[in-house]
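thread: overnight batch results

M.L. [08:02]
morning all. the overnight job finished for the chain we discussed friday. pasting input first so we're all looking at the same thing
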Amino acid sequence: MAKYTFLLTFTLISVFSFAKAQTIFSVDYANQADFKVYVVDYASQADLLVNKVKHKSHVKDNQGLWFFVDYKSQAEKSIFFVEYQSQADLLIHFVDYKSQAGWKTKSKKHILY
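M.L. [08:03]
and the structure it wrote out:
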């Protein structure tokens, strides 16, 4: 039994360690998206501070560094930008520097796994 517990724990840690979920595709309809986002005006209002990186190689785990891809098949997650904050699963604010990116509401981190 302990052997299986160890194996399960190791597998889960491995999956979450290597899960990037930061290659993003913006869809045209809400029902096509994995989750809905709303862009807030101020960093203090956001669940996640996002920096749009220019190269896919700059993507790091679930840290708010997003690389937008051209095709849904290239994306790990698809998003839909909603018109109203109340419709969103996640509130984001775009930041200018990679060092500013990161989670402010850690309880929502699971959305990108």
